[in-house]
Amino acid sequence: MKPVGNYSFKIRKGSGELQDFSKLKFINSLKKSGLDQKKIDLILEKLGPRLKEGLSTKRLYRLAHSLIKKNSYTAASRYAFPRTLSSLGPDGFNFEKFVAGLMGKLGYEVKVGVVLKGKCVSHEVDVIASKNGKTIYMECKFRNNLAFKDDIKTALYVNARKMDLQQNTENKFDEFWLVTNAKFTLDALTYSECAGLKAVSPYDPEGYSLYDLMVKAKAHPIGIINSLKPRDQSYLINRGIFFVKDLLSSPNAIDKLSISKKQADEILKEARALCSPF
Asked: What is the model's pLDDT at position 227?
């Protein structure tokens, strides 16, 4: 595979499918990390010789993340955030518990998987969060494919549930959130705003995105620890350790992993470094 300098090449997706590399899309992902244009240009310059026909999206992510981390820890954590959420899969239940845990760390009293009667039928509300007399009902949508976009059909479906629950006066809530680890289409965002749904994704809306909530809660998801292998992440998540700070408060959980002391020390060292800016 020869390097390409004009960014005109095909990149290999996780499915194995080849598609044209989009320089604009890649630059936008770097901008979302909070880097300024000068640093983005520098990263593109350093990446240039490594951009080759057939480069995998995973490899590109790792290369970019490594370069971003040298410029800014905060930008690196922001860039990595959507992928760290994917470690909560493959089903959606752990994502619901992650969202509940995040709200809990923000001081909310939380409940998960509550069945409530609407006017017409009963509905399971994924997360209910209450604080200072304010109650939020939350519908969580976990997607294994980070390129997936929740469209207007999802927003229509969730709003129909909201409306049915509203029409039973026993249900008292102030806001209804539609939360995804992926993205929303423009139509879904436009409809949600009009219908009174708060559409929450990794980077949007400003101030209430999952990333913003994470920063406010000072709670990195466990998947951000690079030295923690996927199987070990799954082990910890399945035992209720969703956040890096939870691992630091329960360091003995590391002893249950089939790893060496050197590996365990490296994991805890990285966990402490991740939490130090917060």
From this structure: 80
